[in-house]
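Colleagues,

For the teaching module next term, I've prepared a clean inverse folding example: a structure given as tokens, and then the sequence designed for it. I'd like students to try predicting residues themselves before seeing the answer, so please don't circulate the second half yet.
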């Protein structure tokens, strides 16, 4: 049984693939508090599928970059799941890998996926036409790449860029592909991918400099 979680953005996507092949999916919109509703939704999906939370064997989790709070929630849930199932297999997926997966389902070209990091900064990662990562996730202050730019719908406005839309179906498809093609990690090694310090960390650093 595979659980797929993406809490890195305004809407949260959750998918549950049962051993009999049945797929359950949910989207939690931005108006709902993910901290209160994600775990509750997973419990409801397990009840619908007549399975237990502790029966989940594999989990694919979007680790970022994205919302600091959302990423923390997703990673914390996986950690909790691992505490009741020490054999849990974890498959981290970055936000930019998911974007690339979605775009490359219908295109075959070198791409650079871009997310808004705010303050005129960008999170980027580059992939070849087959989805192999050729530039790992990083944060930059300018976009100067010899490839098609791919953005998240509603996130940025960039001339000539193609947009993709996050949805639960794409998350589940990417998660199933990741399970087939990648080695699992243990939940103890799972870490969020922030790429930049939180505002609280930045304020603390500034405060220390001024002391």
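(Answer key — instructors only)
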């Amino acid at each position: 049984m595979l659980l797929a979680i993406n809490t890195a953005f305004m809407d949260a996507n959750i998918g549950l693939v049962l051993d009999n092949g049945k797929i359950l999916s949910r989207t939690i919109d931005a108006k709902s508090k993910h901290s209160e509703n994600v775990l509750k939704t997973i419990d409801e999906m397990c009840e619908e599928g007549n399975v237990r939370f502790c029966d989940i064997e594999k989990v694919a989790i979007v680790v970022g970059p994205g919302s600091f709070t959302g990423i923390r929630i997703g990673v914390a849930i996986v950690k909790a799941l691992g505490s009741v199932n020490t054999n849990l297999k974890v498959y981290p997926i970055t936000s930019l890998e998911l974007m690339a997966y979605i775009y490359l389902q219908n295109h075959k070209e070198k791409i650079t996926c871009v997310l808004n990091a705010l303050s005129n900064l960008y999170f980027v990662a580059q992939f070849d036409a087959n989805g192999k990562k050729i530039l790992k996730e990083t944060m930059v202050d300018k976009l100067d790449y010899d490839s098609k730019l791919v953005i998240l719908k509603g996130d940025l406005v960039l001339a000539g860029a193609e947009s993709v839309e996050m949805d639960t179906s794409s998350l589940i498809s990417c998660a199933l592909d990741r399970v087939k093609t990648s080695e699992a990690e243990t939940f103890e090694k799972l870490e969020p991918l922030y790429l930049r310090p939180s505002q609280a960390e930045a304020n603390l650093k500034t405060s220390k400099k001024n002391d």
